[in-house]
Design goal:
Chain B: One of its GO terms (molecular function) is proton-transporting ATP synthase activity, rotational mechanism. Chain B: It is found in: Mitochondrion inner membrane. Chain B: Belongs to the ATPase gamma chain family. The complex is a heterodimer of chains A (164) and B (352). By secondary structure, chain A is an alpha+beta fold. Chain A has two domains: 116 residues, ATP Synthase, domain 1 (Sandwich); 43 residues. Chain A contains four helices and ten strands, in the order ααββββββββββαα. In chain A, strand 8 and strand 9 form a beta hairpin. In chain A, helix 1 packs parallel to helix 4 and helix 3 runs antiparallel to helix 4. With 352 residues, chain B is α/β, with parallel strands linked by helices. Chain B has two domains: 126 residues, no CATH class; 175 residues, ATP synthase, F1 complex, gamma subunit (Pyruvate Kinase, Chain: A, domain 1, 3-Layer(aba) Sandwich). Chain B contains nine helices and six strands. Chain B has a five-stranded mixed β-sheet, with helices on both faces. In chain B, strand 4 and strand 5 form a beta hairpin. Classes of the chains: A alpha+beta (164), B alpha/beta (352).
Chain lengths: 164, 352
């Protein structure tokens, strides 16, 4: 799982390195922007924002959403949502949730999200160690599954931080 | 002197009626007339002596002073209760602000998801009508009613209307479908247990003790999913305004229906590394938790709003009652002074 996430993350790195290509694509649709909403159960991060592109950590890999994307429902895994707007990149770590690409707008409904800069690297490292210990100590399937979720989330956070 | 006569009449009338203490209690709600709450109070003190002693004057004197004391004690009680009600009102107002802002913050999240499912609702209405035609008996259905109430009382009628609504649903259904009741919040348990005790499958308490969080709701949602009901109906108070809350029934379409009407989402691509049916299941679970979260927040807001207005009414009632009691106390005191004066005058006249 970690390897998968890491490969996804490195894929993400390559993608951002090839910025020139993307810029061309963005220019092609410069006339219109992506109508973007980012919702949490306890609040709203962005509402009716006009952005250039959004990268979401879909369960099958990082998905880039540009204006006029085909309608899609994507389940999110722990990872980074990147919002590109006017040359600035806002990065948020999300735990899970769904992204809905509608014809006229894109909604990201996450269970929990935090700006990537708010994550504490040492706390994340500690979390990975704890999750690994819990994984080793888990006996039943239920415990194993719970530990796996914790481990996945923490490793995703760690790789997100090393990427940043 | 007229007030003295009136007092006597009231005493005699009330002396025969039992339950003076009950009248005292009832008068707390501010329903009693000016004399009704006070007269029995006097009777409870004065009547037994009046019956045992033949000396009318002596009794009256005792009654007069004790009575004034009783009235003053009641005034103090009413004032204290009024203070408590006022404090509760202020607390409810503060809590209402907090929970209302939370609810408003969560609204876009729920609507964002709800709008996606609304495409299905249109289609679902058609399919259920069809399903009802082919399967009028509704066999194989299992219904779960999730009744959302508050954990604490003294909040007007918000819990009573929920209980009423659920009972009404049970009557309408008339035992046609096996129904389970899930109680979220503690105040629905006692009234529901008496009538539909067998239907209650689980009850959660202290849900609203701390502000509601999404993970907490997920736990409840998980419990709902584990029970495999085909239909789930949420019953809760919808917050319309600080003065108005209304009970609503919100049916949540079952998983089987979602899977059946998957064609509604044909225009959407499903991005997943598993099969798309699994995404549907996950999406359904997410939707259930979101609806539940929304319902709990609505009900929590309604509860605080209802408590605020109930306590506002109660503190206003206590002010009214205090004023009435003050009038009574003054009259009684005045009557006492008048009696004393006439006694002194009569005594002086008999001596000279």
């Amino acid at each position: 799982m970690f390897r998968q996430a890491a490969s996804r993350a490195s894929a993400l790195a390559r993608q951002s390195a090839a910025g020139g290509q993307r810029r061309q694509m963005a220019e092609a649709v410069a006339a219109d922007k992506l109508h973007f909403n980012f919702f949490l159960p306890g609040g709203t991060i962005q509402k009716d924002a006009a952005v250039d592109m959004v990268l979401v950590p879909a369960s099958s890999g990082v998905m880039g959403i540009l204006p006029r994307h085909a309608p899609t429902v994507a389940q999110l895994r722990p990872g980074v949502v990147e919002v590109h707007s006017e040359g600035t990149k806002d990065k948020y770590f999300v735990s899970s949730g769904f992204a809905f690409v509608h014809k006229d707008r894109t909604d990201v409904c996450a269970v929990a999200a935090a700006p990537l800069s708010d994550l504490d690297a040492s706390a994340v490292a500690q979390g990975v160690t704890d999750a690994e210990a819990a994984m080793a100590a888990a006996k039943t399937d239920m415990e194993k599954a719970e530990a796996q979720i914790g481990l996945d989330t923490y490793t995703a956070m760690r790789s997100a931080l090393t990427m940043a | 002197m007229t007030s003295r006569v009136a007092l006597k009449v009231a005493m005699r009338a009330a002396g025969n009626s039992p339950g003076a203490a009950g009248a005292l209690g009832a008068s707390l709600s501010g329903r009693g007339s000016l004399w009704a709450p006070v007269a029995p109070a006097m009777a409870s003190v004065g009547a037994p002596r009046g019956q045992s002693s033949p000396s009318a004057v002596a009794v009256e004197e005792q009654v007069r002073w004790v009575n004034l004391k009783v009235v003053r004690e009641r005034m103090k009680t009413v004032a204290n209760i009024g203070k408590i009600c006022k404090a509760m009102k202020l607390v409810a107002a503060a809590k209402l602000r907090g929970v209302q802002s939370l609810q408003e913050a969560s609204r876009p999240f729920a609507t964002g998801l709800g709008e996606f499912f609304s495409t299905m609702d249109d289609l679902e209405a058609a399919t259920t009508a069809e399903a009802a035609k082919t399967d009028p008996s509704g066999e194989g259905k299992k219904q779960l009613i999730i009744a959302v109430t508050s954990d604490r009382g003294l909040c007007g009628g918000v819990n009573a209307v929920i209980v009423k609504e659920v009972k009404q649903m049970m009557i309408e259904d008339a035992g046609a479908t096996p129904t389970g009741i899930m109680l979220v919040g503690d105040k629905g348990r006692e009234p529901m247990r008496r009538v539909h005790g067998d239907n209650i499958v689980v009850s959660f308490k202290d849900v609203f003790k701390a502000p509601i969080t999404f993970p907490q709701v997920c736990m409840i949602a998980e419990d709902v999913l584990a029970r495999s009901y085909t239909d789930v109906v949420l019953v809760y108070n919808r917050f319309k305004s600080a003065m108005e809350q209304e009970p609503v029934r919100k049916p949540i379409v079952g998983l089987s229906t979602v899977l059946d009407s998957a064609s509604a989402f044909d225009e959407y691509e499903f991005d997943s590394d598993m099969d798309s049916a699994q995404v549907f299941v996950d999406l359904f679970e997410f939707q259930l938790a979101t609806q539940l979260y929304n319902a709990l927040l609505e009900n929590a807001t309604s509860e605080q709003a209802a408590r605020m207005s109930a306590m506002d009414n109660a503190s206003r009632n206590s002010t009214d009652m205090h004023a009435k009691l003050a009038l009574t106390a003054n009259r009684v005191r005045q009557a006492g002074i008048t009696t004393e004066l006439s006694e002194i005058v009569a005594g002086a006249a008999s001596v000279s």
